[in-house]
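Supplementary Methods. Inverse-folding protocol.

Structures were first reduced to a discrete structure-token string of length 256. This string, shown here, constituted the complete conditioning input.
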């Protein structure tokens, strides 16, 4: 065990419903630590903490909530003043480190929404203005174009988004994948899409994805690019905690 990992264990004291490792549930938490294999390529505290959080999500979701709580407190994540993107930026992570931290942070999106939005009650929903729109004398312009930095194609961008934000995108991607695949296998379109467009299967099973030559052809490329942009828009309004309509209203200009 490295000294860095030892320090991580010593300084990590997640609390949820009064639970602290070593008190109410030492067996569950201790077994997770013992089964956690530290990746030596992880060089920062935030990456180690994120990796352990993913480990807990997979093996013990109830403990994962405590670890996420610890993560938020340790790295001072605040949706309004110091959100996860600002935190990631401060740590100057490489592409893989950034993906790990964001993926781990949003891994409990469906089961513990309170960690991502301060107040989800019906009477207060939509009243708080996200920090992005808090300056009333400024105009915000949205640019939904181009690829995610580091990707080479629409399918790479869409897959990156799916991998990082799977909890909030899964249902939408599953629905769109089914719709697109059923559409392109019709007799009039089958010649242009001999491998269909089952993008959900491609995201989940890399070996099932067709070649880049097929995916880069004009017809498939346009549809995948459109899907990726819709995924980006969904991530934006969901992480801001507002409806699609409210998001559109906040923009003074839009670049498609």
């Amino acid at each position: 065990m490295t000294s860095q990992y030892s320090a991580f264990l010593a300084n990590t004291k997640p609390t949820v419903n009064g639970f602290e490792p070593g008190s109410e549930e030492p067996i569950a938490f201790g077994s997770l630590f013992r089964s956690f294999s530290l990746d030596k390529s992880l060089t920062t505290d935030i990456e180690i903490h994120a990796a352990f959080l993913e480990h807990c999500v997979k093996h013990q979701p109830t403990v994962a909530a405590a670890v996420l709580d610890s993560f938020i407190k340790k790295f001072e994540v605040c949706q309004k003043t110091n959100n996860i993107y600002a935190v990631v930026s401060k740590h100057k992570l490489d592409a893989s480190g950034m993906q790990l931290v964001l993926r781990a942070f949003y891994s409990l999106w469906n089961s513990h929404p309170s960690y991502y939005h301060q107040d989800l009650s019906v009477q207060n929903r939509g009243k708080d203005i996200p920090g992005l729109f808090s300056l009333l004398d400024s105009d915000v312009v949205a640019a939904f174009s181009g690829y995610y930095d580091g990707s080479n194609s629409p399918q790479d961008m869409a897959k990156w988004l799916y991998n990082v934000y799977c909890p909030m995108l899964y249902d939408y991607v599953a629905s769109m994948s089914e719709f697109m695949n059923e559409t392109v296998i019709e007799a009039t379109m089958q010649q242009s899409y001999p491998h269909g467009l089952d993008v959900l299967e491609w995201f989940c099973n890399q070996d099932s994805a067709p070649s880049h030559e097929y995916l880069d052809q004009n017809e498939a490329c346009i549809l995948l690019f459109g899907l990726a942009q819709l995924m980006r828009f969904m991530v934006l309004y969901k992480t801001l905690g507002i409806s699609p309509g409210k998001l559109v209203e906040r923009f003074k200009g839009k670049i498609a």
